[in-house]
Design a protein that fits this description.
By secondary structure, the protein is of the alpha/beta class. The chain is built from 24 helices and ten strands. Strand 7 (about 555-560), helix 20 (about 570-580) and strand 8 form a beta-alpha-beta unit. Helix 5 runs antiparallel to helix 7 (about 160-205) and helix 7 (about 160-205) packs antiparallel against helix 12.
Length: about 650
C-alpha cells in the first residue's frame, strides 16, 4: 500500500491532477476532544486494544530479558514487606508483655531490627529494580532506532517525524515504569496485601470478613476506573505526539515562518495541540486521582468498621485488647500495599497504552533485504568494491516499460504508462512541468516505493529482484533540497563512503570546486556546518551533496535539480564535471534550467505521467511540442537557439 506524499513531484502531481492528499497519521485527533466525547465506542475499542491481554503480553516481553534482576529486586522488596508484616505481631507481643509486667527488651530489639533491616532490604531491592528499568528503556529504544531507518519510505510518510520521536522518547519512558516498577509494585502489593489479610484472619475472622467486604467493594469500583485510565493515557500520549509533530514542522521551516510573519498563527496551532494534550492529561489525572483516592478510602472505611465492631467485641469479651491493637496496626500498615497495588495497576494501564504505540512501529515490516532483529547485518557488497569489479564497461542501463505508479491506492497515477530506455553511460536529462512525476522516477529507481504496474530493470535485472541496499550502493543520489546533516564538513562528505581515502576526498572536492570553501573555513574539513547545514550557502550545500554522491563512485548518478542554487560560473564548471563523469557513469538529471540539459545525449520529456517525446535538444526544438514551449520560457543564452527555433522567445 502506498501512502503519504513525497517531496517534490508527489505533491505537485496531486496538485496537478486535483487529488487532495490528506496527511495520514496514526494519531487520533485528540486536540479538540473533551471529557464527554472521550466515552465513545471508538475510544472504548482503543482502550480495550491498548490494555488487552495482547498488550500485557507484549509488555512482559520487554521485561523478560531482565527477569533475573527483576526477580531479585522483587524478592528483596518482598523481604522488606515481610518485615513489615511481622511488626504488628511483635507489637502485640510487646503489649501482652507489658500487661503481665514482663521484660520487653527482646521485643524492642526485634522491632528495631525489623524496621532497619526491612528499610535497607527494600532500598537495595528498589535500586535493583530501577537498574533493570533503565535496561528495559535502553532495549526498547535500541529496537526502535534500529527499526526506524530500515522501514519503507511509504510507512514513514504516513507518520509525522514528531510523533515518531515521541514514541522513542516519551513512550519508552512510560514503558520503563510499567515493565519494571509498576510490575513489581503490583506483584509485591498483591503478595503483601494477601499476607496481611491472612494474618488478619488469623487474629480475628469476624473483623477480617468486615475488612474484606470493604476492600472488595472499593476494589470493584477501582476496576471500573482502570479502562478509563488506559484510554485517557493513550489519548494524552497521542496528543503529545501531535504536539511534537507541530514543533518539528515549525522548527524545520523557522525561516519561512518568520519571513511570512506567521509566528502568531503557528503559535496558535501549537497552542491548540498543547491544549489537546492538557485536556487528555486532565482526564488521565482525574481518573488516576479516583484510583489513588480509593486506597485511602479503603483504610478509612475499614478503620471505622474495625473500631466500631472491634470495640464491641472487646467489650463483650470475645476479643482481647492486644489482638485489637495488632489488628488495627495491620489495618494502618494496609495503606502501603493497597496504595502500591493501586499505583502498580494504574501504571500498567498507562504502560500498555505506551507499549501499543511502540509496537505499532516495531510491527512494521522492514524493507525487503533488511535483516530482522537479531539476524545481524545483511551481506551487501560495498559500492566502491563492486565498481572496481564491474565488467559492464561503465554505467548502468535502465529500462522502464509501461510503468504505473500512484502514491495512494485511491489516488490518480503519478506515472501512467511511462516507457523509455537509457543505455549505459552518458548524460540523460528529464524535463517536464511540475507534477508530472520526474522526482518519482528517481524514488522508484532507489526503491523507496514499488511500482503498481509494468516493469523497471537496471542492468537487465528486474528492480524487484534487487536487494534495495545493494541497489542503492551502486547509485549516487542528490536530492532536490540537497540535505546536509549536522556535524562536520568531513562527516557530510564521507557520509556515503566512510572508507574513502584522503586522496579520493581531495580529488572529489577539486571536481566540485569545494577546495576554496574548505581553505576559507576556520577548521577546514573539521568545521561544524550547523543544523541542516545552516553555516553553508544553498550553492555550497548542493556542491557538498554532489561531492558526497561522487565519492561513492556510483554506476548510476541521479541529480534532482542539483545545480539550481549555483551561480552561472559554478554551474558551468559543474556541468563540465558532470559531462566528464558521464563518460563512465550513467547520469540522469532532472532540470528546469535549459543550460543544464542542452549538452545531454538524450532528453526525456515527461507529460501526464508518461514520456511524450525524447531526443537531443536540437531534435526536440525542431519537433516543437511541449519541450519547445518550455524552452521558450527560459533564458537561452545566445542566438543559436533562436536561429534553430524562430518561435522561441
Amino acid at each position: 500500500m502506498k501512502a503519504g506524499t513525497t517531496k517534490g513531484d508527489a505533491m505537485d502531481a496531486d496538485a496537478a491532477t486535483g487529488d487532495a492528499v490528506p496527511v495520514e497519521a496514526d494519531t487520533a485527533d485528540t486536540g479538540t476532544a473533551d471529557a464527554g466525547t472521550a466515552d465513545t465506542g471508538t475510544a472504548d475499542a482503543r482502550a480495550v486494544d491498548a490494555a488487552g491481554p495482547g498488550a500485557t503480553r507484549t509488555l512482559l516481553e520487554h521485561a523478560r530479558p531482565h527477569r533475573k534482576a527483576l526477580i531479585a529486586g522483587a524478592a528483596l522488596s518482598a523481604l522488606g514487606g515481610i518485615s513489615g508484616l511481622a511488626q504488628p505481631l511483635v507489637a502485640k507481643s510487646f503489649v501482652e508483655a507489658l500487661a503481665v509486667d514482663g521484660s520487653v527488651a527482646r521485643q524492642v530489639l526485634l522491632l528495631a531490627l525489623l524496621i532497619v533491616g526491612g528499610a535497607l532490604t527494600s532500598a537495595f531491592g528498589m535500586y535493583t529494580v530501577e537498574r533493570a528499568a533503565e535496561s528495559v528503556v535502553l532495549g526498547a529504544r535500541r529496537r526502535l532506532i534500529s527499526r526506524l531507518p530500515r522501514l519503507r519510505v511509504a510507512d514513514l510518510d504516513r507518520r509525522p517525524p514528531g510523533d515518531l520521536i515521541s514514541r522513542v522518547t516519551a513512550d519508552t519512558t512510560l514503558l520503563r515504569e510499567a515493565a519494571t516498577n509498576n510490575l513489581v509494585d503490583t506483584l509485591i502489593g498483591s503478595v503483601t496485601l494477601i499476607g496481611m489479610l491472612v494474618l488478619m484472619a488469623w487474629l480475628d475472622v469476624v473483623l477480617f470478613l468486615a475488612v474484606l467486604g470493604v476492600v472488595l467493594a472499593i476494589g470493584g469500583c477501582t476496576a471500573l476506573v482502570m479502562p478509563r485510565i488506559a484510554r485517557a493515557s493513550k489519548e494524552a500520549q497521542e496528543a503529545l505526539g501531535e504536539l511534537g509533530s507541530g514543533l518539528e514542522r515549525l522548527l524545520g521551516a523557522i525561516r519561512t515562518v518568520k519571513a511570512s510573519g506567521a509566528e502568531q498563527r503557528e503559535s496558535a496551532v501549537l497552542e491548540g495541540s498543547a491544549r489537546g494534550a492538557w485536556r487528555a492529561g486532565l482526564r488521565a489525572a482525574r481518573w488516576g486521582a479516583v484510583a489513588g483516592t480509593s486506597s485511602g478510602l479503603v483504610v478509612q472505611l475499614a478503620f471505622l468498621t474495625v473500631l466500631g465492631l472491634g470495640g464491641a467485641r472487646v467489650a463483650n469479651g470475645s476479643m482481647s485488647v492486644a489482638s485489637l491493637i495488632g489488628f488495627l496496626l495491620y489495618l494502618f500498615y494496609l495503606v502501603g500495599p493497597v496504595a502500591q497495588l493501586a499505583s502498580g495497576i494504574s501504571g500498567l494501564q498507562v504502560g500498555t497504552a505506551a507499549v501499543r504505540r511502540i509496537h505499532e512501529v516495531l510491527e512494521l515490516a522492514p524493507e525487503e533485504g533488511e535483516p530482522e532483529e537479531g539476524e545481524g547485518e545483511a551481506e551487501v557488497p560495498d559500492a566502491r568494491t563492486a565498481r572496481e569489479g564491474d565488467t559492464t564497461g561503465g554505467g548502468a542501463g535502465i529500462v522502464f516499460r509501461d510503468v504505473v505508479f500512484r502514491y495512494r491506492e485511491d489516488g490518480r497515477p503519478v506515472l501512467d504508462g511511462a516507457d523509455f530506455e537509457i543505455r549505459p553511460g552518458g548524460l540523460t536529462a528529464v524535463v517536464g512541468p511540475s507534477g508530472t512525476g520526474k522526482s518519482t522516477l528517481f524514488a522508484l529507481l532507489e526503491r523507496f516505493y514499488d511500482i503498481d504496474g509494468g516493469s523497471v530493470t537496471v542492468d537487465g535485472r528486474e528492480l524487484r529482484d534487487w536487494n534495495p541496499a545493494a541497489l542503492r550502493r551502486t547509485i549516487g543520489y542528490v536530492e532536490q533540497d540537497a540535505p546536509v546533516l549536522a556535524g562536520t564538513l568531513r562527516d557530510n562528505l564521507m557520509f556515503a563512503a566512510p572508507d574513502a581515502s584522503p586522496d579520493e576526498l581531495r580529488h572529489v572536492m577539486e571536481q566540485v570546486r569545494l577546495t576554496a570553501l574548505v581553505d576559507a573555513l576556520p577548521e577546514g574539513l573539521d568545521t561544524e556546518v550547523g543544523h541542516r547545514g545552516t553555516a553553508l550557502s544553498g550553492g555550497q550545500r548542493q556542491r557538498v551533496a554532489i561531492a558526497r554522491a561522487l565519492l561513492r563512485r556510483p554506476r548510476l548518478l541521479l541529480l534532482d535539480e542539483a545545480t539550481s542554487q549555483l551561480d552561472a560560473l559554478n554551474e558551468s564548471e559543474l556541468r563540465e564535471v558532470i559531462a566528464d563523469i558521464a563518460r563512465t557513469t550513467t547520469v540522469l538529471v532532472i532540470a528546469h534550467r535549459l543550460s543544464t540539459v542542452t549538452g545531454a545525449r538524450r532528453i526525456l520529456v515527461l507529460e501526464d505521467g508518461r514520456v511524450s517525446a525524447s531526443g537531443t535538444h536540437a531534435e526536440l526544438l525542431r519537433e516543437g511540442g511541449l519541450y519547445a514551449r518550455l524552452a521558450a520560457t527560459q533564458t537561452l543564452g545566445g542566438d543559436d537557439h533562436r536561429a534553430a527555433h524562430p518561435t522561441a522567445g
